[in-house]
Amino acid sequence: DIVMTQSPDSLAVSLGERATINCKSSQSVLDTSKNKNYLAWYQQKPGHPPKLLISWASTRESGVPDRFSGSGSATDFTLTISSLQAEDVAIYYCHQYYVTPPWTFGQGTKVEI
Amino acid sequence: QVQLVESGGGVVLPGGSLRLSCVASGFTFRSYGMHWVRQAPGRGLEWGAFIRHDGSSQYYADSVQGRFTISRDNSKNTVYLDMKTLRPDDTAVYYCVRSWGGQSPFDNWGQGTLVTVSS
């Protein structure tokens, strides 16, 4: 099974500042034949289900603000919130869908103001 | 718009059984794979089960293998999760989740239904 490890577990960022969340997979999630990373990021606000923010490591979903960006390849990935807004307070999860089953998630990173 | 509405959660005794349902709307249900993902109180996300768009294959997490069964009825736009021999550590919110296939992101999530296993 691929183990996904996020860091840090939590972080506090001032409004308007940058937040950076890292995700490391225990093996590559890059399909070199397709040059695609099978890595997604989700945002979960309290009392709500997760919401897909970014797929294929760097493709923002429709309607997701452009302050959210994803980067990385193979085993190391980053979610960046360029200018934190109050509504971005949430838990963020990375997720690999390359080597399945099982589909696996990181443990989550809590972002606070 | 895509909607996934779960039902069937509740309180059950250890060793008991429960059936969850998820009714889908707003998309061509028979074209999509469906997952169940659970989240224990205050914990992270745990994938539980997946069924292919046509019901031809099912996959399970080790933690539920042999106790849970995922199925679907494409004529009713519904996916099910039959849970038996429930344990206290099965207590969680269970989410119904859509994905295009086995190697696709989880692009739409239901609101979830809470299952509590307790005596």
In short:
Chain A has 113 residues and is mainly β. In chain A, 0% of the residues lie in helices and 50% in strands. Chain B has 119 residues and is mainly beta.
Could you list some keywords that capture this structure?
heterodimer, A: mainly beta, globular, B: 119 residues, mainly beta, 0% helix, 50% strand
Dominant shape of chain A: globular
* Rg result of chain A: 13 Å
Helix count of chain A equals: 0
Which consecutive residue ranges of chain A, at least 5 long each, have pLDDT under 50? none
Helicity of chain A, as a percent range: under 10%
In oligomeric terms, what are we looking at?
heterodimer
Radius of gyration of chain B, in Å, reads 13 Å
Greatest interface and its residue counts? A-B, 24 and 23 residues
Helix run count of chain B: 0
The residue ranges of chain B in which pLDDT falls below 50 over 5 or more consecutive positions are: none
Structural class given helices, strands, pairing of chain B? mainly beta
* Mean pLDDT across all amino acids of chain B: 97
Average pLDDT taken over every residue of chain A: 97
